[in-house]
User: Which sequence fits this backbone?
């Protein structure tokens, strides 16, 4: 069964050993990376977290070339972060460049708006950029290795209520259906002469806004059909499943992966604390 990111972008973990882990282990590993982000305050710490995330993706068999799709987003966010620290935030440190943009003489003093680039601001900017890389890699690791079936049986093995398992399955299945409906509507618009590649950005935004109407209509119709199907089968939030034929137990490798994730978070807490 394809993973969540495999259905959306065709990116899946290829390692059979990693895919054979319990869903709790496959959630704890990227979650531990995310929990370590607030403690990676310096560029070396954030860069180490990026290295750990990349190593986890490689171990899972996820090609790092998948990150190329997010290069434009990373570059734009990096430029915004550097400009924010340079134009609107002054961080004390050794001044590398300084210029006055606006100077107003008032009765109580002089107001100045300066661009001040310090070594501390560059350090903070680098740490933020590395954190973004780590966040993208950890999210890719999670979504490229977990299927909605894994989530359902994983919740079952953790004694979660049946309604929670069904809701989780419907949520992730709904993401795939939403993306599929969007591409269907886009292809229908292209068949009617709409050229998304040559259309200006502002007009393209309006075209996508117009596509929301059939998308919402399909979502409402699909939600009604799913609710009727659940009701016809007698499934309610408080229902219990009578099926117990599928065993989904934690093994030694799963406990080792969970322990490694917890150790990673504790190590960054000690390093960055």
Assistant:
């Amino acid at each position: 069964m394809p993973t969540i990111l495999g259905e959306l972008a065709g990116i899946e973990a290829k390692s059979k050993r990693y895919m054979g882990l319990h869903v709790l282990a496959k959630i704890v590993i990227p979650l531990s990376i995310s929990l370590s982000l607030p403690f990676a305050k310096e560029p070396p710490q954030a860069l180490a977290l990026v290295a750990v995330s990349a190593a986890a993706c490689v171990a899972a068999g996820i090609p790092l070339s998948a990150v190329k799709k997010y290069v434009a987003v990373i570059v734009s966010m990096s430029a915004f972060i550097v400009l924010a620290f340079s134009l609107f935030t002054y961080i004390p440190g050794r001044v590398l460049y300084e210029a006055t943009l606006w100077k107003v003489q008032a009765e109580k003093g002089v107001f100045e708006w300066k661009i001040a680039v310090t070594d501390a601001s560059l350090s903070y900017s680098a740490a933020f950029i590395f954190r973004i890389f780590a966040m993208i890699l950890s999210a890719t690791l999670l979504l490229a290795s977990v299927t909605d079936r894994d989530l359902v049986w994983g919740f079952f093995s953790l004694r979660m209520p049946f309604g929670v398992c069904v809701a989780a399955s419907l949520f992730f299945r709904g993401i795939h259906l939403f993306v599929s409906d969007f591409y269907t509507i886009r292809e229908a618009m292209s068949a009617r002469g709409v050229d998304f590649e040559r259309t200006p950005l502002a007009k393209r935004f309006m075209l996508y806004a117009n596509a929301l109407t059939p998308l919402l209509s399909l979502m409402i119709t699909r939600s009604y059909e799913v609710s009727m199907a659940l009701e016809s089968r007698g499934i309610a939030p408080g229902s219990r499943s009578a099926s117990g034929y599928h065993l989904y137990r934690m093994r030694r490798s799963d406990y080792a992966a969970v322990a490694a994730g917890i150790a990673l978070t504790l190590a960054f807490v000690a390093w960055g604390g």
Q: What stands out?
A: The beta strands are 95-106, 109-118.
